[in-house]
Amino acid sequence: MITPSFTKTQLDDIDQQIEINKAVALSKFRLKKVEQRYFMDNLAKQQKIILLDKVFTPSRPVMTREFFFGRFNEINRIFSAINEEGKHIILYGERGVGKTSLANFMNTSTQFLATKVTCNRYDTFNTIWKRAFEEILMPLTNGEWEIDNVSSEQVSLLENLLYDNEEIESSPTVIRILKKVSIPILFIFDEFDLIEDNLTQIKFADTIKALSDNLPNITLLIVGIADNVNELIGNHNSIERCTTQVKLPTMPDDELEKIITQGLEKLELTIDSSVKSHIVELSQGFPHYTHLLTKHSSKNAIYNNSNLVNKDHFKIAVEDAINDSYESVKESYRKAVATVKKETDFRDIIFACASVETDEYGTFRLADLQNVLSELKQKPVKPQSYAYYIGKLCEADRGAILQRIGVKNKYRYRFQNPLVKVFVLLKNYKPITI
Prior knowledge:
The chain is of the alpha/beta class and about 425 residues long. Helix content is about 50%, strand content about 10%. Among the domains are: about 70-245, 3-Layer(aba) Sandwich (Rossmann fold), CATH 3.40.50.300; about 325-425, Arc Repressor Mutant, subunit A (Orthogonal Bundle), CATH 1.10.10. The chain has helices spanning about 10-55, 70-85, 100-110, 125-135, 170-180, 200-215, 230-235, 255-265, 275-285, 285-305, 310-325, 325-335, 345-355, 370-375, 385-390, 420-425; strands spanning about 90-95, 115-120, 135-140, 145, 155, 185-190, 220-225, 245, 270, 310, 400-405, 410-415. The protein starts with 7 loop residues before the first helix and ends in a 7-residue tail after the last helix.
């Protein structure tokens, strides 16, 4: 075997090339590690963003128990009513306080068989109950509905108990069908306020009374926007004894804080305490805006590789929340302030209306605005100087952004859509040192 011979120069060149190859290999190895770390970091980031969209849901009601926080008092009252035979529930309140989210929670949390129907303006007593019966799939044995030891051939829908082409015109038909049921059922009728047929209200009141008297294992939960029960289902004293009336108020601050902290825990994020306080303050008791502001603040933190939601993330989130607000809310504000002349007067007055302290119904007096406007304009302001603008803001050409309540000389005012109030506060938010 012949051993090749090399000069010293050649050997030095070979050693140098070996070192170069080692350096290149190490560089490639490190680059691969960086690429892998970058990929993993981006994968983790995207996974957090996906989870973020489930935890904070400003564009839709909360759909599952896992992401529902707060409302303990109202939940306890509703559960107590469900467990009391012959009792039904009417859940009402203003727009944006989380009624549908609570209805969804009840739909998945009770031990009863439950179904939820979302009403619309064209619905009648017949269409609502037919959709409800279409949702209930139950076993049938010997003419009675039972739940154990049943084959698939014995399963049917409640709607199949209707006669051919039968319409559900009144409570006796509902009672006839539900008499076949031997287990408790919870029927949830959401957005009941949208129904325009007044006769449907009357028929539902009759049905509540009939169910309470004859079928105590059936419970109705009626949900809708209203200031009082009469607005939702009419003035029917006969059902007062068999209903629990639950008004859903704006959410207290401590429960809004739980939405923030418990939601962020699922994302393995924390939040600056002062940022949390600002989100709660700006939300004004409306969980929609708590979800909206926390979601955008968290997204900014995640994209900046931070596990702490800080003031910089929040400041950007305010602008994001304004842009991401409902179009109807943005349009209401635009119509209210849009004018060539004295535009700032409308802006200032609307901001004062959003900032002034209100009563439990969200209303204020004309005189209540005096101190707020005086401080805003940094000069004394009298009610007669802004009464004209308040009147205009109640009219259609200004979007009827305000609602006038009461009688002349004792008028009180409030925002037609309370979510507009929060939007106004966001539009006028001034970044400060937090």
